[in-house]
Amino acid sequence: MSSFFEIENKKEKARLGKCYTSHGVFKTPCFIPDATLGAVKTLSIEDLHSINMQIVLGNTYHLMIRPGMEVLEKSLGLHKFMNWDGPILTDSGGFQVFSLGKIRKITEEGAIFRDHLSGNKILLTPEKSIQMQKVIGSDIMMVLDECVASDSSYSYFKESIDLTYRWAKRSLTEARNGKIVNNPDQKVFGIVQGGKYDDLREYSLSKITSLDFDGFAIGGVSVGESREDKFKVMNLIGDKLPEDKPRYLMGLGYPDEIIEGVKSGIDIFDCVIPTRNARHGQIFCNLKFNSLDDYSYDVINIRNSKYRFDFSPLDENCDCYTCRNHTKSYLRHLKSVSDILGMKLLTLHNLNFYMRLMEEIRRYLA
Amino acid sequence: MSSFFEIENKKEKARLGKCYTSHGVFKTPCFIPDATLGAVKTLSIEDLHSINMQIVLGNTYHLMIRPGMEVLEKSLGLHKFMNWDGPILTDSGGFQVFSLGKIRKITEEGAIFRDHLSGNKILLTPEKSIQMQKVIGSDIMMVLDECVASDSSYSYFKESIDLTYRWAKRSLTEARNGKIVNNPDQKVFGIVQGGKYDDLREYSLSKITSLDFDGFAIGGVSVGESREDKFKVMNLIGDKLPEDKPRYLMGLGYPDEIIEGVKSGIDIFDCVIPTRNARHGQIFCNLKFNSLDDYSYDVINIRNSKYRFDFSPLDENCDCYTCRNHTKSYLRHLKSVSDILGMKLLTLHNLNFYMRLMEEIRRYLA
């Protein structure tokens, strides 16, 4: 049996690798789109295959509320439920508890909150998060961590790191307790926090990496942080994460931010940007990639009136269904009449842009 | 060159036939889905091909407003604009003027209204409608008619029939004036009106069929009419329309209404029901068809909580992508979280149901 993660090549800090799961291999550096509620919004599984999507991300918090764990249990996990047979990574639910949940309270035991739909009071503990991720049956589970507001005090961050560490230990124990639900081969990743404080990032790193996780993530980089702070954190921490395990930067980002992450030694990225921005008409195109330091791309808004009579595709060099079949003029029209097909065609294109970007990066690192 | 319409077989009044257009043949009896604004809502062209869609319907009124005739002119017609190379039928715009337009006034010249989006005052004449349909480049154009409210008086209906007749003559003249824009082979259909008054239907029939149209439609059957009145009109008029030309019942209907129409001798149907109802979760399934008088099907609402743990497809015997890949439980979930993918998967299924229904009808008539 091969190990979970293999590094095939390196250029400076940047790594080319492969992750092996029981639902297939994914090549790194890798971008993961959000399949928040069991679907990458607007796209069918066939659409995902058409752009060589390797792995998708499910949100435990959202899935817990709808369809609920009972449904996922009876459907034998999320893979079967959504009919996706590739790898799935799930978050812990923590991020949404902090961004969507109401009246939250953090105790040693876990996070108490009211869900954003029904208002039901829920206690999410590290153990419960792992138990739910076992029901979901994801290939990579994330531990519950406290997502601290970026403007919190130094002392709050420090205490939080200790709590997150104790939660991480409990999560790992739960993950490795031998209880198999819907997937006998689930990996579990720890998360380094610490905000923008260099010494706290180092402190969190030393605590979390002392635990025997299958991979490590950097958290708290996507939310309300400046671009400068994000880059500082990745550069500080990226390459200090264990060499032999995959490194995951949570919730990032724009193409140039991803490239910056790769340069810092990160292997895995996820973000709502390509999908959410597509639904708002913001399109990535015209990628020219020579190296991690020499590249360019365009960002256009398809709603712009200058595309009204533009009968060329979004991107002459893109091989996605949208670019092979439709013009900017038509896509602008669908967007302006809010047609659902338009959202799908634009989402497909943007995700294919990200897939091509990652492919170019991997080719460069080979 | 073959003629436009060929009857291959008959069973009582019901006819099996073929319509030849420069964008391909479509077999009748035939159902046409609405591609209102240049897209069958939620579905790509690839999706339409996957369920053997023969022909789609464009709404001249909507296309006039968005994207506008200037865009359609520069894109060399709707086929190229939406990248659909099969046949297209367009309505005259009249129906939407009467249902969506504001402050409308009917004069001998045409219909004056304010469009429902910008409030711009527009005069739609029979000639302008045909001119726009020439820009659209549809394979079948419809004449502008007055769509009279079903509760109007007998005398209003009678006057309207005379006006609609004069408009029909002007439309035909415009259609046959030799001016080719984006499609050299456009057919044009006249429309029989008359509401629920038998003698007025006969009167309208005799006037309209005295003109040399390529086909004939029955109008005013979809809007605010009782099921009883609809059936009465089709049975009265259906088989009195010229034998050698295609017959089109506008805006109808549910599967059993379509079967009733076929029995009355109608060849072509269009309706928003399969697509709009799909978006609301109403699903057609489990078709059992032996003959035009011996058939059954189910209508279910996928939002029903009883499907929460139902891991079977919508329809065991359906070959659409949705039924081959997804369970009721998953579709119910997507519907309950208002996911766009759900709307697409349900739309695809419902349209495939209609396609299978028409296929069964044609097999029976062969």
What does this 3D model show about the protein?
In chain A, the strands form 4 sheets. In chain A, strands 4-14-13-12-11-10-6-5 form an 8-stranded parallel beta sheet. In chain A, 55% of the residues are buried. In chain A, helix 9 links the parallel strand 13 (247-249) and strand 14. In chain A, helix 10 (273-279) packs antiparallel against helix 13 (340-365) and helix 12 (328-336) crosses helix 13 (340-365). Chain A has helices at 45-50, 60-74, 78-82, 94-99, 126-136, 154-175, 198-208, 227-237, 255-263, 273-279, 321-325, 328-336, 340-365; strands at residues 5-11, 14-21, 24-28, 30-33, 56-58, 88-90, 102-106, 111-114, 121-124, 140-142, 187-192, 215-218, 247-249, 268-271, 282-291, 294-301. The first copy, chain A, contains 13 helices and 16 strands. The first copy, chain A, has 2 domains: 5-95 and 130-270, TIM Barrel (Alpha-Beta Barrel); 272-366, no CATH class. The first copy, chain A, is of the alpha/beta class and 366 residues long.
